[in-house]
Amino acid sequence: MATDKKNKSGRRNRKQAAPMLFSKENYLIMFSGGFLIFLGFLFMYLDGQINGFISLYVSPLFILAGFMTFGVGIVRKNPQLSEDNQSPQS
C-alpha cells in the first residue's frame, strides 16, 4: 500500500516535485525565436512593396532564423533533467 497521506482537500501529498521540462535558458531561446519571427513579419509589413528587397529577401531570413531558434529552444536538453537521470555506477 502507498504511504501517501491525504490532506484536507482530499489530494495526496507528493514527496518530490517533478522537474520542469524546460529551463529558463530554453524559454529565453524560444522567446528570442518568437521575437525574430515577429520582426520578420513586421519588416514585411513595413516594406509596403510586394517586390521590395526587404520583403523578398530580408524578412524571410528573419522568419526562418526565428523558427530555427525556436526549434533549438525546444530540443535543447534541460541540464537539471540530465543530472537527475544519472545513476551512480559502482
Structure, described:
By secondary structure, the protein is mainly α. It has a domain of 54 residues. Helices cover 60% and strands 0% of the residues. It has three helices and no strands. Helix 1 packs antiparallel against helix 2. The longest helix has 24 residues. The protein is elongated and about 65 Å long. The protein starts with 23 loop residues before the first helix and ends in a 5-residue tail after the last helix.
Brief sketch in words of this structure:
With 90 residues, this protein is mainly alpha-helical. The chain contains three helices and no strands.
Provide keyphrases for this structure.
3 helices, about 90 residues, elongated, mainly alpha, about 0% strand
